[in-house]
Specification:
The protein is an all-alpha fold. The chain has three domains: about 80 residues, Orthogonal Bundle (434 Repressor (Amino-terminal Domain)); about 180 residues, no CATH class; about 60 residues, no CATH class. About 75% of the residues lie in helices and about 0% in strands. It is built from 16 helices and two strands. A two-stranded parallel sheet has the order 1-2. Helix 8 packs antiparallel against helix 9, helix 11 packs antiparallel against helix 13 and helix 14 runs antiparallel to helix 16. The radius of gyration is 28 Å and the shape is elongated. The chain starts with a helix and ends with a helix.
Length: about 325
């Protein structure tokens, strides 16, 4: 019996369609159809997966004169392993390179968002306290324009870098299987990066704290414009600190995704899939409540409190659901 006939026979014994077998092997249905019609032959990696799925030897699959072997349903662990998406060394290196390139750009976008109101604060203060020969309306308009331009640039950065990384979104949601050598390569790069990661996190937190010092000292001067300048300086310190933290955390997270550690273990991925429908319904409901209450009361300045309350409540709902 030739390989094509054996695939058909074993597939039917398992009760699988071509689509179901293709899903288990992470290939297209057309590929399975070509194998069964002898148009093409599966590569060695797929032969090994077929052997695991059907519970037969590779000799049986490859040798036309091999004695008949009854297929059996493999255990759940083997079936799951065969159905996981395989990450090759080339793909892992490509992801790490893309994540490292996107990390500093996304971090820069976050820093720009923090800095975006600085011009508005300084210009408004300078106009109010007579430091610049412009009206408050002119200062407010110019500051708002700079704020929007910086925010738009940051959003553009988030969208473009997010789209570049979208092809690797499966690393956050699906169980994966690493080709031999990939785990060792990632572990080595993680170890080399660890000291940089720790020092950057410590430095970023330190800058966020130090940014408060000028603001505290300005209180002794009793100069309101100086206080505004120190607020701007605080935002600058925070922007640099957050830049370091976000930049290094994205790179560190890329190692965790490939190694399925931390927030990306297989158990947490399964929980995340269970939470997705709940999260979609919950946040749509919160948006509806926020808009309805805000339009009904007209008190937009206070209804924002719904968002932090909803976030804390959602965390509690998730914890209770997972415990149950």
């Amino acid at each position: 019996m030739i390989l094509a006939d054996k695939i058909i026979k074993l597939r039917k014994e398992q009760g699988w369609s071509q689509e179901e077998l293709a899903h288990q092997l992470q290939v297209s249905r057309q590929s399975v159809s070509k194998w069964e019609s002898m148009v093409s032959v599966p590569d060695l990696d797929k032969i090994l997966k077929l052997s695991q799925l059907f519970g037969v030897s590779t000799d049986y699959l490859l040798k036309d004169d091999a004695p008949e072997e009854p297929g059996f349903a493999p255990d759940a662990e083997a079936s799951a392993e065969a159905g996981r998406r395989t990450v090759t060394l080339e793909e892992a290196n490509g992801y790490l390179h893309q994540a490292a390139a996107a990390a500093w750009r996304i971090a820069l976008g976050v820093a720009v968002c923090i800095l975006s109101p600085v011009a508005l604060i300084l210009l408004a203060g300078a106009a109010t306290y007579g430091k610049l020969a412009i009206t408050e309306d002119m200062a407010g308009g110019l500051g708002a324009a700079i704020f929007l331009l910086l925010a738009a640039g940051a959003v553009y950065c988030f969208i473009t870098e997010g789209l570049k990384l979208h092809r690797y979104a499966y690393l956050e949601r699906e169980p994966i299987s690493l080709v031999y050598g990939v785990a060792g390569m990632v572990e080595t790069k993680k170890e080399q990066f660890e000291s940089t990661f720790k020092s950057s996190i410590a430095g970023g937190v330190m800058l966020c704290i130090l940014g408060m010092v000028p603001l505290m000292l300005s209180a002794m001067a009793e100069d309101e414009f100086l206080t505004l300048c120190c607020v701007a300086l605080l935002l600058a310190f925070a922007a640099v600190g957050v830049f370091l933290i976000v930049w290094r955390c994205i790179v560190w997270g890329s190692f965790a995704r490939l190694l399925e550690e931390g927030d990306y273990t297989r158990e947490k991925k399964a929980l995340q899939k269970q939470d997705d429908p709940l999260a979609a319904f919950y946040w749509c409901l919160i948006v509806a409540i926020y808009l309805g209450l805000s339009f009904f009361t007209g008190d937009w300045g206070r209804t924002w409190i719904i968002w932090p309350v909803a976030a804390v409540l959602f965390a509690g709902v998730q914890a209770l659901r997972r415990r149950a």
